[in-house]
Amino acid sequence: MVGGVSEELSSPSHHEELQVASTSGRDEFSSSSTSPTCCKTQGNDMAVEVRSFLRLNKPPLATIQSPDGDVIDCVHISKQPAFDHPLLKNHTIQMRPSCHPGGMYHESHITHHPINQTWHLNGKCPENTIPIRRIKEEDVLRASSMTRYGTKRTGSIPNSNSINDPETPNVLRGHQHAVASAQVDKCDGTKISINLWQPTISRANAFSLTQLWIIGGSYSGNDLNTIEAGWQVYPHFYSDNNPRLFIYWTSDAYKTTGCYNLLCSGFVQTNNQIAIGGSISSIFSTYGGTQYDFDILVWKDPEGGNWWLQVGSIDVGYWPSSIFSYLADSASSIMWGGEVFSPDAGQTSTRMGSGHFPKEGFGKASHMKNIQLVDSSNYLRPPNDVQLVTEQPHCYNVRNGISDDWGTYIYYGGPGKNPYCP
Questions:
Q1: Which of 72, 245, 269, 351 could be bridged to 199 by S-S, CB 3.0 to 4.6 A?
Q2: How far is the CA of 154 from the CAs of 12, 250, 258, in angstroms?
Q3: Closest of 315, 246, 243, 272 to residue 123, by C-alpha
Q4: Are 133 and 278 a contacting pair, CB within 8 Å?
Q5: Catalytic residue, candidates 7, 127, 137, 228
């Protein structure tokens, strides 16, 4: 190993046409598992489940040990987990988008911040490979339910029409949000500048995140499609309190499809610089001090129909349209904001964003700015009729506005438990 990089094979030639066997793996950190009647059976079953997840690790061409404890495997682009998906057999990799959206809002006033991740300190992945955060045995064993390791709970997305609906009480159980939303007709993506913090988490299996949601379908039909991206702090999942870049997707309301990051087949990564799920280097916003923002853009390629992810100025990869139903066409709503989850009975003290309420404003409350939609002409424009959604405004809240410098923006977040939110 030299400079934190272990070279295991020579750098491959580029291949685009792929034929792969179909395997799959999905997981979550939040539901309870059923206790078996026999300890020996329990041990055997657990070992089998752990091995099944470790098989999701693909043979690397190089390995980088990150200072934060992560192991980053540089996997040949044609051997990545995406191609275990049965719908992606013989998939031809789209190495770059056909074009980017036009009409960047006040582009001359936007400073693009490079995305630095901790593992970059010890090396980089070769060309024709992608960096994948390795699944470790201890990661799987920390999960309270290995059968859903790496997935979200069913119904972990806010719905402005159902928050007060007595027939949908389980949709938001344990989850609290402070978000803005826009109902749209044939929307093809969104772009935001996102504020980065390191919020305090009340317990290891709670989380705090900031993200965008691109949505089609509904819970009621069990056909909700989402594409999600942002940053999160999730100690039980990542074994630390670092903010980490994450993605998510589902095509059936979080029931059996989709996962965090690259923990199942679906997302096709094309870039060798960004490790999805990797920690973001320690440049966080500070209360009353320097603010750190970075851009996220997700848009539907007008030629191939794939949904591309750009982080900063880097095109990271795409969700193929073929893995979706509604989003194979377009989105019907977009959301932006924060979410916390805690399994605690009663109100959690996990912070959202900076942990301060929107009324405190710039440098103190978390923000998103330059919020834009991608229309059906692949053009960026500001959203109309933005609605605000929060379940308990004395715990976490959200405000929106429009300005010349920031375009459409929101302040959001809060401390959770406090004298007005017992």
A1: 351
A2: 40, 10, 11
A3: 272
A4: yes
A5: 228
